[in-house]
Design goal:
12 strands; single chain; 2 domains; alpha+beta; about 210 residues
């Protein structure tokens, strides 16, 4: 505690506060937490509770963890399937169509021709797709960029909770995606595009029989 009865909160950056949070408990009572300036020595930040005259300090990292915008708190996942539960993958590209099936013996290639698959290569593909996230701080109109971008691939993943698709397009060095589970079109990390930029031979088992 810095001050027990503060008559003026402005010197602490608490009037107005830089961050204000209303916290409601199980009893439906709400308390308002006010976060102010950093202390002169650094490392701490001034804090108070509305209607309480006392001024406290807490570690500055608390302010960083609480000062979040809507995009910071939003779930950015484009697919909701767990990679370990995906049992079938279909990739449709301009000049090829590939299908993979997870069996008790591991991943198998069904199309364009049946053959054993390199399980780790397919696992990397599946994880890259299920880990795909929206890039929400990107500049420009993602929907307009998606419309003018070149279609790259459409991935269809089937798991225990159903089938989900992810359509990916490329414009220069940027990648944009549209998901069947989330409304809208979003820029995605280049790792998603690189994971799809594969030929069927990249997924064939290299083990000699």
């Amino acid at each position: 505690m810095v001050e027990e009865k503060a008559g003026d909160r402005k010197p602490y950056g608490l009037d107005p506060p830089s961050v204000e949070l209303d916290i409601t408990g199980k009893a439906h009572t709400t308390r308002r937490l006010l976060l102010g300036d950093d202390t002169p020595a650094g490392g701490d930040v001034y804090v108070a509770v509305a209607a309480d005259p006392r001024i406290f300090t807490i570690a500055s990292y608390n302010k960083s963890s609480l000062n979040k915008g809507l995009n910071d708190l939003r779930d950015k996942s484009l697919l909701t399937l767990s990679p370990d539960k995906v049992s079938r993958v279909e990739l449709t590209e301009k000049d090829q169509h590939m299908e993979f099936d997870r069996t008790k013996d591991g991943w198998q290639i069904l199309k364009p021709s049946p053959s054993p698959a390199d399980g780790s290569a397919v696992d990397i593909l599946v994880r890259s797709l299920t880990d795909a996230k929206m890039v929400l701080n990107a500049t420009g109109d993602a929907a307009a960029e998606f419309a003018r971008a070149t279609p790259m691939a459409t991935a269809k993943l089937t798991g225990d909770s159903g089938t989900q698709t992810l359509e990916v397009r490329k414009n220069k060095d940027d990648y944009y995606a549209k998901s069947s589970t989330v409304a809208g079109t979003y820029k995605v990390d280049s790792a998603v595009g690189l994971a799809l930029n594969k030929k069927v031979d990249d997924f064939r088992s290299k083990k000699k029989s």
